[in-house]
Amino acid sequence: MIVGTNARICTVCVMPEDVEGVEIGPDGQCNCCKDAFARSPHEWWPGEEGERRMASLVATLREEGRDKPYDALVGLSGGVDSAYLAHLMAAKHGLRLLAVHVDAGWNSEPAVHNIEKLVRSLDLDLVTCVVEWDEVRDVQRAFLRANVLNQDFPQDHAFFATLLRLARKHGVRSFLSGVNFASENLHIPHDGPSSSDGKHVRAVHKAYGEKPLHAYPIMTMAEYLWTTRVRGLPKRYRPLDFTNYDKEAAQEELRAVYGWRDYGPKHSESRFTKFYQDVYLPRKLRFDKRRLHLSSLIVAGQLTRDAALEELRVPITTEKQAERDTRFVAKKLGMPIDELKALIDAPIVSHNLFDSDKALTDRLLKGRAVMRRLITRK
């Protein structure tokens, strides 16, 4: 499968102009990497400032965890970012972590191996929340039939809702996220709801779902506001942004210490996300998501633009592998493969055609921005 583009490419990173939300200015630079470069000094501290912030965070978490069984929650997907984060905070900084894994039925075999090795070696307590498969399948089929862009929305929301409920249950005040500036700093502006929006999950499922949902973790806005704004749970930190995080070096260290096993490109620890990135997006949108990842590395100074362009010359997958992945997903979801192929080739439908809490979220964000400006002026 060859995904090419004849559109103009940013002269700084490798983002193409023919993707909605990407704009290339007269200077040849796109809005995405320009925004990332502007945010860099405020979101990533790989030097002495990062060491100071890390020491302060570790001290804060130890104080919060005093007389409690855990200092913080950490998510484990089996991917390199979360695994290295657990290694960094438990083995190097001695924090007592409660590891959380949400199993939505798509774990790759290397991801399962990596989680087991990390948990045993670091002696972490692990809570694995297995989402009812019949309901996962019904929600994912609904999103596919809705033809919306973000097909990872159901998995992402299930993780988000589960995390907040576990924070309440165990009284852990802080969550350590493997999200990091170095490898995922580029974002394409969009106007859709965030994956924390439970109303949107219900709206899409109501339109195309076939069975009632009883156990699928869906968080309402009222529950979200009660947990995060009233109870203040959990505070979210990104400790990898306090280090000179380099994914390749992290993988090497994990291999040496834990017998780490590679699962392929970024986020492919989930078999569904691999299909979404390798097959769905390239065919539906003519977009190769590697461009986001590679452009992030360019912004972080960990890859040259020429090296990124060379990597993009290799197809993201082959026709044979794409067919194999499509058959696997169709069979697992209980869909005829011809229906799945037709859905992939159908036009995109806006998320905004389905109900959500986006308008309320936007008002809350604007209100918070106004409050911050007022506080800053004082």
UniProtKB/TrEMBL annotation:
Highest taxon of the lineage: Bacteria
InterPro entries registered for this protein in UniProt: Asn_synthase, N-acetyl_sugar_amidoTrfase, Rossmann-like_a/b/a_fold
Pfam families per the UniProt record, alphabetical: Asn_synthase
Lineage of the organism: Bacteria, Pseudomonadati, Pseudomonadota, Alphaproteobacteria, Sphingomonadales
NCBIfam families the record matches: WbuX
Identification of the protein by name: Lipopolysaccharide synthesis protein
One GO BP annotation of this record: asparagine biosynthetic process
Residue stretches making up the Asparagine synthetase domain: 75-178
Molecular function per GO: asparagine synthase (glutamine-hydrolyzing) activity
